[in-house]
Amino acid sequence: MALPLSRLPFELLRELRHYRWAAVGLFALVSFAVLAVGFIYPYQYRSEVVIFVDDSNIIRPLMEGSAEMTGISDQTSSARELLYSRRVLERLLESERIFNENISQMSTERLEGLYSRLRSNISVSAQGESYFTIRYQDTDPRQVYLIAQRLGQLFLAETNRRKREESRSAYEFIDKQVKSYEQQIRNTEQKLKEFLSRNVEGTEQEANSRMARIRSDIDAAELELEEVQAQKRSLEEQLEQVSSGEGVSSSSNAAAGPLAERISRMEERLDELRLRYEDSYPDVASLERQIRELKERQSSGQPAGPENDSSNLMFNPFYQELKTELSRVTAREESLRTRISALQRRLAEQKNRMETIQENKAERSELTRDLEVNREIFNDLLKRRERARVSMHLDVEGQGMSFQVHEQARYPLNPSGLQFETFASVGWLLGLMAPFGLLVGILQIDPRVRTTEQMRDALDIPLLGSIPRVRTPYERRREKRGYVLMVVCVAAVGGAYGAVVFLRMTGVLG
Asked: CA gyration radius for the chain?
């Protein structure tokens, strides 16, 4: 049955009077127990090294774009991982000034225990944007100081070593890639050279240009052939007219008709040629010469030859000239036909060559593309290798981002965290609070009825009254003597507590 809060102080005092000796014992027990914990509590000593991250070196803006500065994006986490590494911890354990044991003779369990204890006691925390602290804490102040000092030294040495190794590894890797791509470029160039030596057809553009020239030559030859054929037909018609006409008779009037007709046809042919060619064209000059000769014969009125037609034709100079011109035109026609056939064969060969070029185009494009891509990557790697070389020299000479010890480790004179004074201050308070706290808990869980309010709430019936406790004069005197004795005991416990604290603070009690 829950006790009302309004009655809790009164019931607490009544229970305290009833259990006063138990409360005094609990007060003494708790106070001295806390004080004993203060005696045996392992006090922690702390020493720390403050590291300054120097990333504003004057070399940085000067080498911007020419070299990559080796840096650490998160100095705190990187420093923690570095100090937790087995390499650093092994070098720390090898220090004879700090540890007297030889790690080579330690068991695996002992060595792993030391590693675990060192890692648990090492802490790294950031201080602003350019500082972070390496802290070590343990129970031995001398060892704490030496370990913190050694951790700062190992951090700087290991950081510089890692930066140099990182720069050198980057340079060696890029240099290896440069040599690899250089060899690939040589191989691709050799393949392309062998391909071009095997395939001498040329490029697609060259083949198209040759085919265009051949087609142009064929068109010109065919046009000239048509002209020669037209000239040949004209000569054949003139020969037929001369051989069948009256030009072979002895009458000059009869011979004048065919001459005039021939001159007229040749002039028409001359006009046609002049529309397409200049006066220096051979056919134009030949027709002009023939027309002049015919006009001279026509104007001179030369008589015909012998009466026999065949004899007249044989000895007719005009007939002989026509036969000669016809033979020349026929030869020219055959020459043009031969030329056109040759040009058509060359065009067919060029088409076959174009097909071969198209078949080789894919392989050549692939070789050319590989060569261009490899050269582009090779040129980029050359620039990167030079930047890596400069970065490597910067790290070797200690330029770029660097770490400096801003504040050295100090010997811890006083322990950090909880100290004996803290236990002495809270021990008597906890001793006083212990009886009250215990009684309050008992009152809250005790099912007995202690007040009239509890009975009214539980039974919901009218309560006529209550009988108070009556104590005799003897009981009052005995209770008074008990209170005096309790005060004396409490004072004795407090005096003993203060004496122990005084002796511990003065160094009498270790």
From this structure: 63
Which regions of the chain are under pLDDT 70?
1-11, 55-74, 199-202, 242, 244-258, 300-319, 394-401, 417, 446-447, 449-459, 463, 465-471, 507-510
CB of 284 closer than 8 Å to CB of 270: yes
* Residue 393 DSSP SS3: helix
The burial of 399, by beta-carbon neighbours within 10 Å (0-12 exposed, 13-18 middle, 19 or more buried), is given as buried
- What pLDDT score was predicted for residue 446? 66
* Residues 438/26, Cβ–Cβ less than 8 Å: yes
Of 145, 125, 182, 160, nearest to 54 by C-alpha is 160
In the prediction, which pLDDT does 251 show? Answer: 37
Tokens representing 464 are 């006529």
Cα→Cα distances 144→15, 155, 419, Å: 52, 16, 17
Please answer whether residues 135 and 123 qualify as being in contact, where contact means their C-beta atoms are separated by less than 8 angstroms. yes
List the beta strands (DSSP E) in 186-337.
Answer: none
d(CA 238, CA 258): 8
Residue 441 has a CB neighbour count (10 Å cut-off) of: 10
